[in-house]
Design goal:
Layout (H helix, E strand, L loop, with lengths): L1 E7 L4 H4 L13 H15 L7 E4 L3 H14 L5 E3 L16 H7 L2 H9 L36 H21 L3 E6 L1 H12 L17 E5 L5 E6 L13
Parallel strand pairs: 1-4, 2-3, 2-4
Antiparallel strand pairs: 1-5, 5-6
């Protein structure tokens, strides 16, 4: 039996400002730090030995994991993978919802935000938020750095990484913690819970609330739950 703990990072500064963040490397808000601390306390209460820790290249996910690890009183090697980065929001990056409504109509907004395979308009090369201009992404092949992504695009980088780097450890009955992002975790949840392309639009991952998934020896789900019952969202399974 193995366990996979998925944690969306605590509230970020741009979450607080209701802005599309994507690959921009923003920090946690004060509330986000508290959410990360709460996550650590909840995970610690499981008395579960965690074998491997994964996160993205972005500081809001890294810092969330570091806070959790500090509470767990561990000193593990953290495995960072750009494939676990948030979805790239193209030219919507940095916009808040009001700005987006001025730029696009309501129908188009809904399609971009919640559809499976529609991406926002691409980010321009000279945009100050373009990840190609950020040194933390220097070791990523330039052709792998997107200018925009749909959830399907995000899925197509998250799932191969999961299959190659994570799943093998679950098969060996290891316990794994992944600190990542709303859309990278939605992509992973789509795979694990076998959620349809249509139903995935209904899945929302709360910040700073660990989701624990228990697997049997055949890597079939035997149980799953959010640790903070007051902030849980519904998981859509086998739709």
């Amino acid at each position: 039996m193995s366990n996979l703990i998925l944690v969306r990072h605590g509230q970020s500064e741009w979450n607080l400002e209701n802005r599309f963040t994507g690959w921009v490397d923003v920090d946690l808000s004060k509330n986000g730090i508290k959410e990360a601390e709460k996550s650590g306390e909840l995970i610690n209460s499981l008395n579960l030995e965690i074998d491997l820790y994964f996160t993205s290249y972005l500081k809001r996910a890294i810092k969330t994991l570091e806070i959790i690890i500090d509470i767990l009183k561990k000193n593990p090697r953290i495995i960072k993978a750009w494939e676990l980065n948030e979805r790239h929001y193209g030219e919507l990056t940095g916009m808040n919802k009001d700005e987006m409504k001025e730029k696009l109509n309501e129908i188009q907004i809904k399609k971009i935000r919640r559809s499976w395979d529609i991406a926002p308009p691409p980010m321009k090369d000279d945009d100050e938020n373009n990840p190609r201009n950020n040194l933390i992404f220097n070791n990523i092949p330039i052709d792998k750095i997107p200018n925009t992504e749909s959830l399907k695009d995000t899925y197509n980088r998250v799932i191969p990484y999961y299959e190659e780097k994570v799943k093998q450890h679950l098969q060996k009955n290891k316990n794994i913690l992944i600190s990542a992002h709303g859309n990278s975790l939605r992509a992973l949840s789509k795979k694990i819970f076998k959620i349809s392309n249509k139903k995935i639009s209904e899945l929302e991952i709360p910040t700073g609330n660990p989701l624990v998934i228990n697997f049997d020896r055949n890597l079939e789900i035997s149980n799953y739950k959010y640790l903070d019952k007051n902030r849980k969202n519904n998981i859509i399974v086998n739709e």
